[in-house]
Each structure stands twice: as structure tokens, then as C-alpha cells.
Design brief:
With about 80 residues, this protein is an all-alpha fold. The chain is built from 5 helices and no strands. It has a domain of about 55 residues.
């Protein structure tokens, strides 16, 4: 299951990059960042609706990015 999740995160980051986002950020994290910064609110609502089984999916993705959970453990400790 962890492998599949890692592949999906990689695809998500690729899509975000193709849409001119930061290359190591997921679309969900970007949607929350836009929401909190007052840039756009509809992308967060759309993505959170698509992931209806995960409460506050975009916020959790953003917080995961801040904690660098997608990085190898030995790199997280250095930051």
C-alpha cells in the first residue's frame, strides 16, 4: 500500500508541476495554500469534495508538506 501511495503522490506532484506549480508540492497542498492566502477558494472545495472520505484533505496535505513527510526520514531530520 505504501508503494502505491508513493506513486500516486509522485503523479500528483507531476500534475502540479505541469500546471506551473512547485515541483515538490501536491495539487492538494497548493489548493490549501491558495485558500489560506485568499487567492482562490474553489479549488480547495473541489478537491476536498473529491476526497470526501478524508476530512480536510487539502489542509492535511499542506501540513504534511510543511512537515516534509514525503521526504526520506534521514532528510527530514536535517530540516
Amino acid at each position: 500500500m505504501a508503494y502505491l501511495k508513493n506513486v500516486l503522490i509522485g503523479v500528483d506532484q507531476l500534475l502540479n508541476t505541469l500546471f506551473r506549480g512547485w515541483p515538490d508540492e501536491t495539487l492538494s497542498s497548493r489548493c490549501w495554500r491558495w485558500h489560506k492566502d485568499g487567492v482562490r477558494h474553489w479549488p480547495r472545495r473541489l478537491v476536498d469534495t473529491l476526497f470526501f472520505w478524508e476530512k480536510e484533505h487539502c489542509r492535511e496535505s499542506y501540513e504534511s508538506e510543511q512537515l516534509r513527510r514525503q521526504m526520506p526520514p534521514e532528510l527530514r531530520a536535517e530540516l
